[in-house]
Amino acid sequence: xxxEEIEIIKGxxxxxxxxxxxxxxxxxxxxxxxxxxxxxxxxEGEDLFHDTFxxxxxxxxxxxxxx
Length: 67
Description:
75% of the residues lie in helices and 0% in strands. The chain is mainly α and 67 residues long.
């Protein structure tokens, strides 16, 4: 895990919207691609992506650094 990723995660844990945006910009396309691949249509994939990202952002308090 890079120092930048650690900084983003720590910021997301604190609720820093700038860090949340950085997370979205860095990993959003990858997560969206995975969601679209497993969905039966594009709308379902978009919904899954939205739900997944909201889940990630609301569960950072459970994150455990293993470094």
